[in-house]
Structure to design on (153 residues):
């Protein structure tokens, strides 16, 4: 699964706002801090406001703040909102299921169903707050020896 720029930017914004612990931030400053085009970010913020994750604070020193506690927003719900589905192929998706002519005799479909289920379990368990409690990964973490053989991971 690869998430879109829109989802990536939405997650960046949520984490940056959560780090402020209740303070608001303008879209101008937020866009600069998280390296997201301001016009694109403004649309994303409106969507997240409608979803109930952030709230708009009016006024000269206004901007956006979290509308929900960071422990109540999961990565799974954010990704589903912007992507529509977590499944890698639509014949194992709950929300965007599309039938396939090979379903009754497909040997790899179960693998993709297992990937969907494990991915959903992890993303639905991880909240904005729990992720903030982890340290960011380093480039060398990506190239650990046990993953070297999996080119294109």
């Amino acid at each position: 699964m690869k998430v879109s720029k829109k989802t990536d930017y939405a997650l960046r914004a949520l984490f940056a706002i959560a780090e402020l612990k209740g303070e608001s931030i303008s879209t101008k400053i937020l866009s600069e801090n998280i390296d997201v085009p301001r016009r694109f970010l403004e649309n994303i913020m409106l969507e997240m406001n409608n979803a109930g994750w952030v709230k708009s604070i009016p006024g000269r020193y206004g901007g956006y703040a979290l509308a929900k506690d960071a422990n109540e927003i999961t990565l799974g719900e954010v990704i589903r909102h912007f992507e529509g589905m977590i499944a890698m192929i639509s014949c194992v998706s709950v929300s965007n299921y599309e039938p396939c002519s090979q379903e009754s005799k497909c040997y790899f479909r179960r693998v993709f169903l297992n990937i969907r289920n494990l991915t959903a379990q992890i993303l639905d368990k991880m909240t904005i707050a729990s992720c903030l409690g982890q340290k960011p990964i380093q480039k060398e973490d990506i190239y650990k020896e046990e993953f070297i053989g999996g080119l294109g991971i």
Q: What stands out?
A: The chain has two domains: 5-66, 73-134.
